[in-house]
Each structure stands twice: as structure tokens, then as C-alpha cells.
Amino acid sequence: MMKLRYLSMVIALSTGLVHAAVPVYEGSQSGSYNSNQGYRDANGASAQGGAQAPLSAQGQLFMQLQQMQQEISTLRGLVEEQAYEIKQLKQQGLERYQELDQRFNSMETAAPVRESAADSASSEPADPAKEKLFYDAAYDLVKQRDFAKAQQAFSAFLRKYPRSQYAANAQYWLGEVNLSQGNLEQAASSFEKVTLDWPEHSKTPDSLYKLGDVQRQMGNREEAKLLWQRVVSQYANSSAAKLAERELRNN
Prior knowledge:
The chain has helices at residues 2-21, 57-108, 128-143, 147-160, 167-180, 184-197, 204-217, 221-234, 239-250, and strands at 31-34, 38-41. By secondary structure, the protein is mainly alpha-helical. It has a domain at 150-249: Serine Threonine Protein Phosphatase 5, Tetratricopeptide repeat (Alpha Horseshoe). A hairpin with a 3-residue loop joins β1 (31-34) and β2 (38-41). It starts with a helix and ends with a helix. One of its GO terms (cellular component) is outer membrane-bounded periplasmic space. InterPro entries: CpoB (IPR034706), CpoB_C (IPR014162), TPR-like_helical_dom_sf (IPR011990), TPR_rpt (IPR019734), YbgF_tri (IPR032519). Belongs to the CpoB family.
């Protein structure tokens, strides 16, 4: 409906400008004006000896206006398309968040469960597809910097899938979100758990480095240095080792 109104306005404006573009000739000369051939006299001869008359200032303005209208129409289409895509993305994000929030609410009504991997009273059978969906949704909260919800999400994930292939990563990010919120003791516990339960995992060097950083923030500088030295000696080729070396030089 909006496009029809817009088209009607363009036609009306264009018609008015066409009439405005017709030149006015003074005097008693009789003849006719053709938009393609210019002014012709009563005998059919062109006012310029047969050559096509140049566009008047109003005609040039009309042509420019037409071009601008075409460009505006194209831009309007692009804006409408982008607005639709943004709306779809927002809707998908909302649906995903609502699904995750429902899972939180259902888990909060359950009895508290110890985080030990050996205690699997509330764990579910392995389902890689479902585990990845849940893990990705929790990680999306980290990217959105919603650390409180991310903490709940990763805690719920570890209770539900303590033996998942994503469990070590979830435990590491649980430490990160706790650290971001200033929960130093909880962060230290999460990072330490990664190093103890998954010593060969790729997140272990990062967890050791982060554990050293937590110890430094808690005032335990000597403990922090021991942890950083451990990173350098045991995981020399890791990016965490380079960070640990820098901390050892500065501290």
C-alpha cells in the first residue's frame, strides 16, 4: 500500500514537471510543440531548421528528478530488506534466549547437585547435538556480556552434562564469568577444576594462567608466580605460556 501511494506521488509530480518543461513562445507565430521534436510551425517545419531543440532548464531538472527518484527507490528497497533481516535476527535471538531461560527455570526447581563429575544423579545420556546447542547458547551470553546469565547457563550445563565433550570448555568459561563479576574464589575453583579433571585439555594452560591471575588479585603473589612458572615449563608452546612469561617479568 505504501509503495502504491509513493508511485502515485511520483506520477503526479512527474506530470506536473512535464507541463512545466514545455517552453512558452511569445508572439503571433502559430505552431505546435512536440516533446521529442521541439517546436514546429504551422507548416510542420522545426523552429531550429529540423534539428532537435535542446532541453530547457525545466526539462533538465525533470530528468535529474527522475534519476533521483530511481536512486531513492533503490535505496528504499535496500533499507526495507535490511530492516526485515534485522527483525528476523532479533526474533531468532529472542526465541533462543527464551528457550534457554525456560531450561534455567526448570533446573532451578530441581534439588541442588554437587558439581563432582562422579556424581551424575542429574546428568543425561550423551547427546552431542543437544549438548552443543546448550553450550553455544551459554557461550552466546558471554559474547553478549550477560555474565550473570552465563554463569547460570554454564553451571546448569555442567550439572546436566558433566561428562560432555564440552564440559572442560564450560568449566573454563564458568571461571571466566566468575572472574568478570569479581567472584575470585569461585573463579579459582573453576580454573583449578579444569587443571585437575582435564589435564590434557587445550584449556588447561589457559586455566593455569588464569588461576595465577586470580591468586595475584587475591594477594597471593608467590602462588601466582609458581602457577605461571608451571605454565611456562609444562606448556611452553602455548599462548598462555607467553602471557605467563610476561607476568613473570613484570611481577
